[in-house]
Amino acid sequence: MGFWPKGYKSCFFLSFDYDASSAETWKTPGDLSSLSKGRYAPQVAVPRILGLLDGLEIKSTFFTPGWTCDNHRDSVAEIISHGHEVAAHSYSHERMTELTAEKEAEVWERSLAALERVGVKPRGYRAPYWMLNERSLSHMKRLGFQYSSNMMDEDMPYMLKHNNVDTGLVELPVEWLLDDWPHFEMDRMSPDEVYRLWKPEWEGLHELGRYFGLTCHPECIGRVSRLKMLEKLILEAENVGGVWFPIGKELADWVRKKAKSPRT
Ligand SMILES: [Zn+2]
CA-CA distance, 131 to 93, in Å (whole number)? Predict the structure, then answer.
């Protein structure tokens, strides 16, 4: 018997990290051009992505820094109004592993307060740069989070243990291979080249009945040619059939349920 809900052979978890200019505000605050790149997300990319997801009838999860909620409130409200999930992603895209314990606690507080201002109590957390530390795990437990999306040790979601102790969190794993940023923004690959990386990975995982977790950034994937490539990949998956496209919290609930009663 398969792992996924009835009728599904594999899982495609599509997520976006809605960073906007959150990192540039502390990394390069005087660089106006660099700051402007993040604004491509609320101004152009997010409306385009929402239109695409509506057309494909897919809901997605947007890991959103508190800074983005505070500075692009209408855009985040629009995401929510389209039925997508907003989850936590720090306040200003901080490198959590490099902060003092005191500073990190402050970031968690600011992040949650900003999400609350847009009416969100997040269930999931993705660390900026996937720099997750032990302290973050305890903050997640203390603050009632249900899932993490940070680890690279699996291609199936699972119940997350740390030092052999159950954290109570579900892990929705990630991988740099399935992240748009390094391919497009660092290696400057073409949409065709990235398609040639992602498609066989998706096909292989689907054949094995496993999980394909794709991480995109609106200001990166939202360029027309790249978004067309993403649309092609999703349409092909939809046409094959049997592919579950859950949002993060729905997937985490399913994994937790399966962990409790693996035979159902
Ligand atoms: Zn990010």
Answer: 11
Helix, strand, coil tally for the chain in percent (to 5) = 50, 15, 35
- 192-226: string of b/e by CB count within 10 Å (b at 16+)? eebbeebeebbeebbeeebbbbbbbbbbbbbbeeb
pLDDT digits (tens, 9 = 90+) for 115-129: 999 999 999 999 999
- Cα 93 to ligand 1 centre (Å): 6
Distance from Cα 61 to the centre of ligand 1, integer Å: 13
Residue 104 neighbours by CB under 8 Å, 6+ apart: 94, 96, 133, 135, 136, 139
> Are the CB atoms for 78 and 99 separated by under 8 Å?
no
Among 140, 151, 134, 133, CA closest to 97: 133
DSSP letters, 162-173, are: ETTEEEEEEE--
- Both structure tokens of 17: 């990290």
Cβ contact 124:84 at 8 Å:
no
* CA of residue 262 to ligand 1 center, whole Å: 33
Give 78-114 pLDDT, tens digit per residue: 999 999 999 999 999 999 999 999 999 999 999 999 9
Q: pTM for the full model? A: 0.97
User: Which residue ranges form the domains of the chain, and what is each CATH number?
Assistant: 10-260 (3.20.20.370)
